[in-house]
Amino acid sequence: MISPGRLYDFLKKKGLSFFTGVPDSLLKHFLKYVQDHSAPDEHIITANEGLAVGLASGYHFATGKLPLVYLQNSGLGNIINPLTSLADKEVYSVPMLLLIGWRGKPGTKDEPQHVKMGRITKDLLEVLEVPVYLLDENEEGSFSTINDAIEEAVECKKPVALLVPEEIFEPYEGKAVENHYSLVREEVIKKIITQLKGDETVICTTGKIGREFYEQNELQQKKVSNYFLSVGAMGHASHIALGVAKNKTERTIMLDGDGALLMQMGALPVIAQQVKNDFIHVVINNGSHESVGGQPTAAYFADCCSIARASGYTKTVRILNEGELIRWLDNDLAVPGLQFVEIRTNQYSRKELDRPAGNPTDWKNDFMKALRKDH
Ligand SMILES: Cc1ncc(C[n+]2csc(CCOP(=O)(O)OP(=O)(O)O)c2C)c(N)n1
After folding, report:
1. 32 with 99, same domain?
2. I need a surface site. Which of 12, 28, 142, 257 has the fewest CB within 10 A?
3. Contact at 8 Å (CB) between 86 and 51?
4. Cα(134)–Cα(126) distance, rounded to whole angstroms?
5. What CA dihedral angle connects 223, 228, 232 and 236, to 10 degrees?
6. Residue of 126, 127, 107, 128 whose CA lies nearest to 118
7. Can you tell me the distance from the alpha carbon of 46 to that of 44, in angstroms, rounded to the nearest whole number?
8. Could you report the per-residue pLDDT of 24-50, keeping only the tens digit for each?
9. Is any ligand 1 atom within 6 A of the Cβ of residue 290?
10. Is the residue at 296 inside a domain?
């Protein structure tokens, strides 16, 4: 197994002291170590993976040094443009190490949203003409592989990828994240479901929000029958909600995460411009990418309601505690029109969470049937 601490020290010795990216569960032990041991300027979690390639390029321009960009392979889609039109050898030729969590690696069992990307990850990088190196649990061998990758990135002045399969890191628990908020995400979701009439359409973002919604809705005898869980496509669920809302008359409730909101923040003005019926955009802001290990986002730092207001959301509400949550549920949830609601929670989640049986195509078919019953 690879020790996160020894890997970090090894990279530092090789001159790598700038880390940026969007977290991934396969990398979580290493990323927590980086978070705990780097100075604030040495580690920056970006809103999406493409921005990390931009940031790494700027870092390289200013320092001449080699940066490391980390991501889950789901984020490859977000880096293709900056890889090909910024960092590529035929454009600005920027050396960088890409540390990529390989979800859905052929031969391993993974969730449906990871299977296709897992299968094509190596080919995709090859098409992008990014050299690929594979790490494994053999620490010494992996360090020598990383050494080769660094040499190639520096000598050829180009991005080079290190693929990381599951379970190659020794566990590193890290420092507990500071918790300023008493609300627990799953309890918030439970209370929202309790207050709904049941005829609303609920769209859930990627990660545990959807799984918690699913469990809590089951516990309330499937109160909401029109719901869609977006298992992949992080950041895009709010526009799935917009597409649905534009084509039906019932209320739409979008349950979003702060990481997903930041990843596609440009969605907000378009939603505000386009929505004509009842649309409640709830962002459960736990200040972190909780589903993949709890690494912090910039969302506790930002004033999400001001951003939403400036984007054109007519009503915005910020909820910081139980009393404010109850007041909003009792008085404002039913208010017609467009609302943006930021609910600040801590980072707690249960380890075991259920998923619906079957596959995403069945879920989509059920969702489409449920939506049509309304018409
Ligand atoms: C493009 C992309 N990058 C990264 C991931 C991995 N990923 C899945 S859920 C998640 C965290 C989502 O954070 P947030 O929206 O704040 O929700 P939370 O997990 O905190 O409930 C990440 C980074 C992904 N699925 N897709």
Report:
1. yes
2. 12
3. no
4. 13
5. -120
6. 107
7. 6
8. 999 999 999 999 999 999 999 999 999
9. yes
10. yes
How close is the Cα of 100 to the center of ligand 1, in Å? 15
Residues 88 and 193 in one domain: no
Q: How many domains does the chain have?
A: 2
Q: Comparing C-alpha atoms, which of 226, 244, 215 is closest to residue 367?
A: 226
Q: Return the CATH number at 130.
A: 3.40.50.970
Q: State if residue 255 touches ligand 1 by the CB under 6 angstroms criterion.
A: no
Per the CB < 8 A criterion, the answer to whether 6 and 171 are in contact is: no
Q: Whose CA is nearest to atom 8 of ligand 1?
A: 207
Structure tokens belonging to residue 305: 């309601």
**Nearest 5°: phi and psi at 188?**
-60, -45
Q: What is the span of the domain harbouring residue 314?
A: 185-373
Residue range 119-177, pLDDT digits in tens: 999 999 999 999 999 999 999 999 999 999 999 999 999 999 999 999 999 999 888 77
Give the single-character DSSP code of 47.
S
Q: How many CB atoms lie within 10 A of CB 358?
A: 10
